[in-house]
Design a protein that fits this description.
This protein is α/β, with parallel strands linked by helices. The protein has five helices and six strands.
C-alpha cells in the first residue's frame, strides 16, 4: 500500500498538534499545550490510517516562536528548521499534502509571509496545499468564516487547493 505524508505547519499555537490528535487512532496523541506556548520542539511523525490509507502526519515546530538575537543574526530558528525539514521531505518524496494552519482571528494579517516562503513554492513544485483555519469556536457555522474571508486570500494572491475550518476544543 502507498503511504501518504501530510505536513502540518503554521505559527505557534494555531492548533497543529490538536488537529493531528483529531486524526489519530485512539491511544496515540501529539503533545498539546493549553496556552500560547509551543509544545512541539522538533518535527514529529505520527502514523495513522485515514480512509484505509496509511498516513504519516508530520507535526512541525511553530513558526515565529521566541527567536533570540543570535537566531536572528545567524538565520536560525523555526523558519530555517521548517525549510530544512521540507527540503528533506521533498528529497525523499515525502510530501503529499501541506496543511497551513492559521488562527481565524489572524488569518490574513500574519499569514502572507509564511505563505510566500512555504506554500507558494510547495504548491507549484511538490504537492497541493490546504489551509486549515482554527479557533473558530464562536462561529455558529464554521464554514461561514471561509465564506466571509476567502476573497481576502485571493486579493493577497494566496491560493489553496482546499480548506477546512475547525475548532479543536
Amino acid at each position: 500500500r502507498i503511504q501518504r505524508n501530510i505536513v502540518f505547519f503554521g505559527e505557534v499555537a494555531t492548533g497543529k498538534s490538536s488537529a493531528i490528535n483529531l486524526l489519530l487512532e485512539p491511544g496515540t496523541s501529539a503533545r498539546v499545550s493549553d496556552d500560547s506556548r509551543s509544545c512541539t520542539r522538533t518535527s514529529t511523525r505520527y502514523e495513522t490510517t485515514l480512509n484505509g490509507t496509511k498516513c504519516n502526519l508530520w507535526d512541525t515546530r511553530g513558526l515565529g516562536e521566541g527567536r533570540s538575537f543570535l537566531q536572528d543574526l545567524f538565520g536560525g530558528g523555526s523558519e530555517k528548521e521548517l525549510k530544512k525539514f521540507l527540503k528533506e521531505r521533498h528529497h525523499n518524496h515525502e510530501i503529499d499534502l501541506l496543511v497551513y494552519c492559521v488562527r481565524g482571528s489572524r488569518a490574513t494579517e500574519a499569514s502572507m509571509k509564511y505563505y510566500n516562503n512555504f506554500c507558494a513554492i510547495t504548491r507549484r513544485l511538490v504537492a497541493p496545499v490546504a489551509i486549515m483555519v482554527t479557533r473558530l469556536e464562536r462561529e455558529k457555522d464554521m464554514e461561514d468564516w471561509w465564506s466571509r474571508n476567502s476573497s481576502r486570500f485571493k486579493e493577497l494572491e494566496m491560493e489553496f487547493d482546499d480548506h477546512v475550518c475547525i475548532t479543536t476544543l
